[in-house]
Amino acid sequence: MAFEDQRTTVYKVDPTHPESETLPTLRTEELLLNMGPQHPSTHGVLKVILELEGERLVKSTPVMGFLHRGVEKLAEEGTYHQFIPHTDRLDYVCAMYNNFAYCRAVEKLMNITVPERAEYLRTIVAEVQRIIGHQFWLGTQALDIGAMTVFFYCFRDREILLDWFDELCGARLTTSWYRIGGVERDFTPSLLAKLKQFLDYFPPKIDEYVVFLEKNRIWLARTKGVAVVSAEDAVSFGLSGPTLRGSGVDYDLRKAEPYSAYPKCEFSVPLGKNGDTYDRYWIRVMELYESVKIIKQCLEQMQDGPIMADVPSVTLPPKQRVFTNLESMIQQFKLFSQGFNAPPGEIYCGTEAHKGELGFYIVSTGGGKPYRLKIRAPSFIHMGAFDHMSRGYMIADAITLFGTYDIVMGECDR
Amino acid sequence: MSLQQLANRIQENFADGFLQAVEWRGDLAVTVRRDKLHEVAQFLRDDPAMDFDYIVHVSSVDWPDDEERFEVVYEFYSIKKRHRIRLKTRVPESECVVDSLTDLWKGADFMEREVYDMMGIRFRHHPDLRRILMPDDYTEGYPLRKDFPLRGRGWRDTFEFLDETAR
Questions:
Q1: Which residues in chain B are closer than 8 Å to A243, comparing Cβ atoms?
Q2: Which residue of A has its CA nearest to B73?
Q3: A237 to B106: CB separation less than 8 angstroms, yes or no
Q4: What is the pLDDT of residues A250-275, one digit of tens each?
Q5: How far is CA B27 from CA B34, B60, B61, in A?
Q6: The total number of structural domains that make up chain A
Q7: Which residues of chain A have a pLDDT value below 70?
Q8: ipTM (interface pTM)
Q9: A74 with B75: Cβ contact below 8 A
Q10: One domain for residues A170 and A56
């Protein structure tokens, strides 16, 4: 049988054998394999075309865009306030942080200073969201590798926080709690009590997750030395968040360009050494402890005060007043129907979400709608390094590679 | 180094390519001629005082009424020096090509592909310039251009409205 395929290579079984000519030959062939788009471990709808030599990855080509909804185009058609719910749907696992990043960008554009209490509230909720994000990552990554128990333990504790979100803003995932210039509503005494209770409950539970994994030989074999990226390459690829810090690069926007209440809190940024999946896992676990520390400090320092900046031309009136006061109702109506008048100009504002640097680049030409809004999504940029990081690993490691970025396709495809 | 000093240093080194530097809300945006883009970018990366080792994003803006219609926007950050810069260049519609920066920052690969996909700006010497978010066989145009309708083009527009309400 003649194989015309160019990828086909014919090897002699033993070319050094004196009778090599008469020995049978071995035909090997590079195999193209589609992984996805409907694979459960691709964390959404992602297809990767794997070129395999045996079970080794020679090259991988991510094919993206299955979840592309044209969010950047939609942003140009609505007012600044109307875009907040769209940001929920970017990274649907961690909606709060998307709201936060977007509101910060618009505040930079409008030059609004957020009141101090609102900054503390924002920081606390953002860190709660970071805990949820890392729990979700740890659970699903362990599940992808085969450790099912960790998944249940993580999701049990995540459920407590999602219920807390439910009480805070009425939604578990698509939260839209942040507003331009502040937040939608303050904590109730019940929410505060529940959060404090959680902070006491949670740190021992982190130790529990770690116990499952730190001596698990399968976990160690599949994370240590897998998906290694050097610090130089990580920076060149524009990786961010734990994926970058796993390679030992000290870049955390909370420290590099302090915002919100972070400069008033003491916390450390854990760094990895080897740049492999295990170091990233360790960073994320350490960040869980750091998040608890930040929330505790914020709760201690937080004073009473307004939760919304007093800029009536931009910020929304309190909901209570909208129902009882004519002027507030007009203000709310005008802000949502026409928007506020943004000055012409352009800004970029990056925020350290739990996946990495989530940035918004907004071009304004005046008027109530952004002229152009570009989302710097960490998942998308991390996928750019996929081919580089996957080469030479086994096919099963492709699964853990999606996990190592903490990829969410809603954000990647926008 | 302050943002003003950064802008001055670029102007000194690229007197002919430098067009404009704007500082607004703490962001520095430098516009250069498109044939100098790659040179300036290389300078930003390699000059010890600049040291922009990190690529933040690549973006594009469509200004349909301008002579040079498209604006390509690069944003860089220096992890060591902790400063940011936005590098911009304009391209006309008739010749919307700029030099790719993939040889300087590896991350530019996917980011430039997205710009090509969404705005139709081509990047010279890009290793793999294909659509990335839209399908490869998408022929309806470039979605983020201002003359592209929000509802899209193509077969959706050919549907007739069927009145299915009860009579």
A1: none
A2: A361
A3: yes
A4: 888 888 888 888 888 888 888 888 88
A5: 21, 17, 17
A6: 2
A7: 1-15, 17-18, 20-28, 39-42
A8: 0.88
A9: no
A10: no
